[in-house]
Structures are given as C-alpha cells and as structure tokens.
Fold each of these.
Amino acid sequence: MFCEFGFRDGAMKVAYFTPSSFRTVNAGALRNVGLARALVLAGHEITIICSDHVRDEMSNEWDAILDGSKISVVQGGSPRGEGSHVFARLVRLLNGPSSDLRSRLSSISPDSLILYNAAPIPLLRLDHFARRHKLPFSLDITEWLNLADLPGGRFGPLAILHELTMRTLAWRRGRYLAISNTMAGKLGKRGLPPLVVPPIFDISPSDLVRRRDRRTHLVATGTDLRDHGKDVGGLSLIVAALAEVDPEGNRFHLDVVGAHSGQTEAYLCARLKAGAFTLHGRLSWEKTLSAVHSADFSVVLRNPADRRSNLGFPSKVPESLLLGTPILGNLFSDLSEHLEDGINAVVVSEPTKQALVSALLRLPVEIDREAVRKQALVRYTPRAWSATVSEFVMGEL
C-alpha cells in the first residue's frame, strides 16, 4: 500500500527512470549517474531504473564508475527478444523502463520521481502516480531529437509522437531539468522555469605522461562516427582542414576514437598520410578519457542549425575540460558561456574548412591546463551542483 508520501527527516528516496541502457557506457547513462551522484552527495538515496531487462548484462565498466557511489541501478525493461535494432530502439524510446511500475515504486517508496527525457508511456504513468501520491516529479530533458533520425523518418508515427510529446511538455505541471539554456528556452515558455544543469561528471586526470613529440595532438571522440552519425560532420571538417594544412602529419596528429564505418576510414586514408592519424575504434570509457587527457586539444565541431546539437550540450566538452584538455571547436548551444578563446579553448569562428584552417594555423597555443581543470571543477561536477539539484528535485526550489 502507498501512503501519501510526506518528506521524512534525513535522507529522501529518489526513483530516477531512464530509457538509457547500462549495457555500455554512454552519454545518457553517464548523465543519469552524474545527477544521481549530486543527489547522493546531498544525503539522498537514489535508485536508477533503466530500460535494460534483467537478462541484459551491465557493462563491467560500471563497476569502477559506480564503486563507492551508493547509487543503485536496477533493470526495469522488457525482454529484447529477437527483433531488429530499430525495433528495440523504438521500444526504448516509447516505453522506457516497462516492468510493473507500481510494484517497482512500491519497493522503493520514493519521495521524489525523475524521468530522463520524455518517453511518452512512462511520462503519462509517472505523472499520474506523482499526482496521486503528491510527489515532486521532475523531467530531465537533454535532447530534442531530429525527426529524420527516428525510425520511420520525419513523417513516421514515432516522429509525430515525439514531436507532440515535446511540444506539449510545457502544458503539464511538472518541473524540468534542462541540459542547456537553449533547451530551457524551449521548455520554459509556459509554466515553471527549468533548472539548467550541464553534463556533470566525477572524473580526474590519470597519471599518464603526455606525449611530447613537438606535434600538436588532436583527439576527436564520438559514440557514433558511422556514415550519418552526429559527429561525422565535425570529423570530415577536421580531416579536410588537416589535409590542407599538414597532410603528412609533421605538425599535427589526429586520434579518432569511436565506432566508425569503412567509409569513414577510407575518407581519412584518402586525405591524410598514415602517420598523421590513428583510428582507435570504440574504446572503453577509461581509455577514451586517457586519449582525451593525453591530447593537446579535443575537437568539438557541430552545425548550430542542427536542432539536436543546438538544444543539447555535448558531454565531451565538460569531460575534456575536467581532464584539463582545452577545446578546439565552434560555438553552438550554450558553449559561448562555457568556452573562452585562449583560456580553455581555441574557438573556431564557424564550422567551415577555412575557419578551421585559420584556427589550426594559430596553433600551438599555450593554455594553462591546470587552470582549465580548476575552472571545470566548479562548473561540471556533482559536488558543485549537489545542493541546487537536491532543492529542485525535492520541490524546495
């Protein structure tokens, strides 16, 4: 039986529902863990209910990431069956965690609910539950998807449902955590103003010795460097610019980290000599962070006209800055408020080859990496956001 939950003295219990999968380390799951860490630091008990089924194995990388965090992650999804990848993705986007919601919440007895992004079915169910039991209910909104990227295309049923859900969020009575001011501007036209929380992480530089071979080392990371992935445009730009400035790799070296297609590999090989770049493929998160830490600059290039990029916030920016690695990239979303040319970045005036060539010709630029990290520690860590996020999620702000 559920009681009319009143706040208890001491720790509160928060149930955080997410369509993210913990079978891999990915930006969505890391966002969930970052916010959960902030709430744990405020003294609360956090349970993350993800969309994986109990038969799905969590990546063993999470053992180190979650070690000592006091964050509980449980699987709440339906069996994946033998369906296609597209169908599995469709189920996650629509349904999120789909086990017996009432039973799951009964076992937790939460004082507050959070839903990561706006999966339509759990949005309706959790909103109903929160109203019935008079609980604070927050939505953590990090992306507004491009309709063409969804299964079925821009005129498919999923695209229509996603657009309707996002456009009607402002009419409901919930509270919103937004990943950027641009996203907050879209959500806050009606109702309560959202709380803007950028990606937050608890990461530290390793003790590795950075390379010193007189070249400027650049790293381009991405969870999807395949043919039409969101990072391919930026990768093609940096490769084209390097091909004009230094195709032999005498001044620059580019490390490319992330899943990629044969088409991507052929593109690099046709424009740069073998010694000018290294294709690493998909690496563990720990090894990815090591690659970023050992680089002189992390490349972040996106098209500001792309809705998903402009309303979101690239997690690789705070990841890099927390490691003391400055950014080489253009300004989109909120990045004008986070990146300062010559301080923690070399800012590219626009995402074009010529603008990037001009930026590359300015390198090397001496940037105080320790100062970069110290500034990032007060902006992008769970500890920096703990009190504010706690007050908001518990309905006190």
Amino acid sequence: MLHERNFSLSLEAIRKSTVQQIRAGKVSTFFYAAAAHQTAAFLRKHPAGEQLLSSIDVQEWTEAQLSYARAVLVPETVTAAAWFAEKGREDIARPLCDRQITDADPLRWLSAGISHLSHLVRLSSRDGEAIRYLLKVLEACGWLQEAVANANTGDLSGALFSLSNHLPDGCLPASLLAHLKTRVTSELRENLMADGEAGLRPLSLLGSATLFLPQYAILADLELPSDERIAAMIKARVRKVEVGQVGTHEIQLWLGIMKLSERTTVRLDNEQTTRMIRLLEITPTPSPQGAETTKALLSWLRTHNSEGRVDSIARS
C-alpha cells in the first residue's frame, strides 16, 4: 500500500507523463474509442484530466460519438456535457446535446427527469423547431406530464427557471402548461404555509412557473404568508457564501413574491429589496429571455416606497 506522500508523487508522475504523451500526439486518440460519459468519468479521476480534455479535437470527437449515440441515455449525456462545459469545452459538449435533441428517442429518456431536459436545452445549439419536435415526442409518450408531476418541488422550480432562460418562445405544449398549473396550485395549497424550506419551495415554484403561465391566478381562498414570514423566507434564501451575489434560487423566490403581490399587498423589508436591486443590476443574464425577466423584476422592486410597501395590483 502506498504511503500518502508516495501516492502524491505517483499522481504527479502520471500527470507529467501524460502531458508529455499529449505533446507527442500519443494520447488523444484514446478518447475517440469511448462514449462521452465514459471519457468524462475517466478524465474526472485522472491527475492530468484537464490537460487531456484540452487535447480532444472537436471534429474527430463529434464524428466518433455518432457511433455511440443510440446507446447513450440522456442522463449520461447531460452529466458528461455539463462537466465538459464547466471545464471550458462547450464545443465538445454541444454536439452531444444536439444529437439527443435531434434524435428525440423516448427510450433514452426513461431514467431522465425535468432537470435533465433543462440542462440539455441550455447546453445545446438546436433551434426552436428541433426542440418543439422533441417536446411533442416526449408529450406523446407521457414523459413530460410525468416529469412535471413527479419532480420534487425544488428541481421543478429550478428546471423551469432555466428553461425560461433558454427555451424558444411557445415551445411548451398547451397540455403540459395545464399540468403545470395543476401542480402549482396543489403545491401552494398544501405547502405554502409550512415552516422552513417546505414553505419556501412552493413560492419559488410559483415564481418560475408563472414565467410560462403569466395569467395564472392565485386562488382567492388560499391562505397567504405574512410579511414577517416572507422576510424570513428571503433571509433564508441568502446563502452565506453568496451574500455578495444573487443565486437563481433567490430570483425564483422573488418572482414568486412578485406574483403574490397581484393577490395581496406585500410590505417588503427595505434592506432586502435594496440588496436585491443592487445585485440584479450587476448580475449578468444568461440570455435575452433572462434579461427580460430581470428587467421586469427590477421594475417591480423599484416600486416599493421607503417603508417597503408594494401595493396589490390585483384586479377587482
């Protein structure tokens, strides 16, 4: 058994040897004889993984991956593509996602969830026509409906928010929107007044879902959280490591509060709204759709007065 010091030296020796072989052109061809998720798993553990990743030729890679496409499940593609993109190789991640969208094979989606769909759309370069066709296929086999019904609330909220940033307009089938409306109503009625995270998630889901359901009306008899509870929710959503930046989980919650203000008067904490305005103003948006969402949220936040009051805009 290697001692820790010797093991570290061994890893460094492997890394140096690998870099030398890359420079000599002896290694990269290995990656064209394995499916993308297998390559990603290998590179994650290899001490010179990032150097090896940089050696992959996008054209050779794309052509080689065609022979594996039919045997690769969507979760495998998403896991690999997300890691490649994180490491700066969007160029080899994109063809993997494009192929899954174009093939639209429902069998490859059996173990996938709504989050996989959102990542696939985010990482791909396919246009609205290809994505609409995929969604029609997934709707026809019942996958979309089950994905909305069975996803946990946090995953569904996050996936919808991501899709709102990257999905071309009008892609979601009308029948799916009806299922989504039912899910949102159920979550609000059952969990909105729950303590802690359980109460936060329905309000965040409301925010994400109404990006696709702008006419959604909150039930007149729904019990709503107090101003104090809303302030506590906002505080709970600010993670300590993200005090100086705004996370998507926060934006989803604020969008939910904005929707809530259509139903009732909301008194917001001025310090919390000031922080959110400041961060939204300096936070880059991922797409034109995302920029529109941020613009609408900023406009709403700026309507609060010095007491933090946002009047209800509910229609009588």
Amino acid sequence: MQVELLHFKEYYGLEFSEINQTAICKLLIIREEWPQFFQKLIQNPQKLQQKTDSFYGFDSENREIDEDDENLMIFLSNTKKIKVKDELVERIVSSRNPFWLPEDIPLALSNKDYKRIFEYINEGDDDENFDLIVRYLFKRFSDEIQKSCNFEKGAQLFDNLLKINSEKSLPNIVNQKIELVSEHRQLLQFIGYIEEYNDFVNYTYMIKKNGQDYFFDLVVRAINDELQPEFIGDRLFMDLIVSFTNNYPEKLFCEKIKNGFAKKFDSIFGFKYNFENGNLIKSEKIQFLVSDELVKLLIEGLKPKDGHNTLNDYEVILDNLIFIYTKCNYDIEKLKAYLMINTEELEINLITNFQHEEDLFNIESKFAYFRKVMNLDSENPN
C-alpha cells in the first residue's frame, strides 16, 4: 500500500494525496478485500455512503446483501469517522486512475478477449492504457503467486502478460520484478499451467537478450533434471522441450539440454520416435540435441530386452543412427567406434530375437543396409 500511495502522490500531487491519505487508504482496502463492491463504486460513487448509512438503519431500502456483506459492514462501521465524499470517490475510482481499469477489461483478460484488450491499449494517449493494464496484471500476478500460491490463476495472468508482450514489449522494470516475484520452485510450478507456450519461449528469448537469464536457466535446469524430481512431470517436460527446442531462435538452448534430452528420451519419446519423420521435434533441430549419451542409449536399445522390443523399434533405432551419421554434425569416428565395439554381437542378438521368417528377413536386410551406410564392413572385414 505504501508503494501505491507514492504513485498517488505522483499522479494527483503531494498536497491532494496527503490531505486525503486516510480516505485513499480506506478505498484501497475496499478494493483489495471487496472487489465486487468496489466495482459498484466505480459505477456509482454514492454507493459508499449508502452502504454506510444502511448499517445504521438510515437508508434501509438501499440495504444490499453481499457474500462478504457482514465483514464489509463491520469495516465501514469501524472506519465511519473517515469521511469520503462522493466527489472524492468519483475522482479516485475514475477509469483514468492509474490503478483501476474499465469494468469490461478484467473480464476481457479473464476470457482472453485480446481483440478488446488491444483496442483498449490503443485507445489511450501515448502508453497510458498500456502502462495501466500491465501494472494491473503484474500486481494481480504477484498477489496470486506470493500471497495465495494460486499457481493456476497466476499462470492465467502471466498468459495475459505474455500475449500483450507478443504485440508490445513489456517494460524492463516489469521483467525485473517478475524475476523477484518468487523462488524457482514456485515459478516452475506456475509454468506448468501456462497455455501460451510459444509466447513464453519468445519472451524468454527477449529478456535473455537483455541480460535476464532466469527463465532460460530455470527451463534448462528443469529439463536437465537439476531440480528436485517433483518439480517437473512428464507432461511439463514434453511441453517445455518441444516448445523451446522448436521455437527458441538460437541453437544454444538445444545444446544446453542435450543431457536431459538423452536421459529422458526413452521414457518421454520412446525408441519408436523417428528423428527424421517424427511430428514433435523439427528434424533440423535434432542435430543440436545429439550427444554421446544419446548415441550410447540408442545402441543399447538395439540389445534385446526380454522380448519387449518390436521389429519396428529396432528399425527406427537403426534409422535414427543412420540419421545421426548422415545428417547431424556429430563426430562420425566416435559413432563408428561405439558401434564397432559390438556390432557383430548386436546383429546376432537381433537375428536370434526374431523367429518369424518375414521378421528375420526384414531385420537381416535392415541391418545389412545399416552396415553398408555406416561403412562398418570395410573397417571390420571379419
């Protein structure tokens, strides 16, 4: 509240703000604790005096029953000595005030009616409405994360900020404040509820260029499993890795999460996932994700696992190794060295794992093609 009082002094002037400080504080408390009643004040400033009078029976015909009516009436009774004239209420809660929006805008934000939101932003002089709506969203976002720990609601408000940022960049001071809202654990929890993932990727890239790495580092650490396991589930892992890998403009992100990608590849994507034809990660991005750990994992996947691997699994793994060999900027000699260690053993295991004649023919043909493409026969003539 002290910060808001400072803003009032900037907006209305020192003399007005100091003379009416107690009245302003009273209205700020009403706005915070009884927002529905506060919206009525915006429409009709006389409601405040009517509500106060109805408590004492002076205006019983205007008495209204609200959900928090009893607590509101007690508050008005306890603060009855703080007189707030109708003219003062009208001035402070007018739509031009820097802390309250027109009645339809909070609803538009809740419904993600961005056509109306951007209309409102463009209606103002200079950036007045833009500053107002961003300040409103940030305050509510901060309250939901810090006070209520309502991460789902916080994410909805953050989605609003992300969408606005996609059209008009948020001020640097707001980006800095977002970092300070909460610790990494809470930030990651609300990220799990974000819907505007592509906008989140672009926002992360934008602020990183300005020297603010906190979301970039947070996502990288989460994917690399450097945070406590309960912070990130499989669905969030999938959302983060697919959105950031495909849409982050620089290869830096892919290079940073190689270890996490390899570690969770089998459990999240599975050996059936084809690097070249898969529909989750762009094939041109795969080359930046290939690591020694991923190559070893794929080779290990060629070894029979209690009969659970299908012919298709093996074929896709072989295709993926060929893709790495032919399309990725990976150390070819290192890849061939990994394969040469036990390539004959792998081939024997594969053949003995399939007894059906057609399967046997297919896997022998596939492995022969694999050896030829990888140029393994020339290096291992035996």
Amino acid sequence: MGRTWNANRRRDESDFLNWLRKGKTVYVITDHRREPDAALMEHPRTYNSYTCTGEHPLIGGWQMSAHFVNGKAISHTDAATLFRWAGEVHDTPPHGIPHASDPGPRVNGPLPYGTYEMSPKEIQYQHDQAEDRANGDLKAGRRKRTSWF
C-alpha cells in the first residue's frame, strides 16, 4: 500500500501539502455506517478520489477537485481543508474498498421463471396483508372495496 497521511499525527498535514503537486490524485475513505442514510448505501465503506488542479491564484494553497464532467472540474476544495475534513488521505486507491460510483451487487429485479415458488403459507400471508390494507383504506374512505385475488 502507498503512503497514508493521518490528521491525528503530528506534521502529517505539512508533509502532505509538501508532497502534493498539480495532477496528483489522492483518495479518501468514507464510512457510511455513521451517516443517517446508511441504509441507502450498498457498501458500508467507499472511497472518493480528489485531483490536485493547481494553486489558488489569490490566496495560494493547493486546490482539489472532486468531480469531472466533460473534462471540467465541478467541485473544488482547498487541500488543507480536505485533509482536516477527511482525517486520513491515501496516495493509492484502497484495496478491497469500492469507489463511491461503483454499482452495488444486483439483488433487485424479478427472478427467472420457475426458480422460486411461493408456499401456500406465503400466499396466505400475502392475501392477509392485502386484505388488511384494503380494510384500512375502506375505513379511511380512500377507495371502494375491490377484490385483489
């Protein structure tokens, strides 16, 4: 694995900023288990890549861009701010952790015909669920009673 800079270690920020040059790419790991919408993520941890686009023309300091669309950088941030926010920065992609834009495992969608048959118990459960939902809608006056099966 390549170099890793940590915000908790002394002199790592200045070492990181001295190492950084235009065109270099760094990688930051995001832990989605701490986020409120963690259930929406396919992977518990992903990484993002940030590319150094050069120095800021007025205040100096390295500028990092996160997203490129048609060759143009969309999101910019200061390298020092990125380092403090991320906590840990890598110079190579982390092994075994997918990129944030990688697709998750395919688990949705219909199964091929004949691969799964519902048992009578499951069918009865589904029928009871539909019946309860229809009764609830009837009580609320949302729609008329119809037969679903």
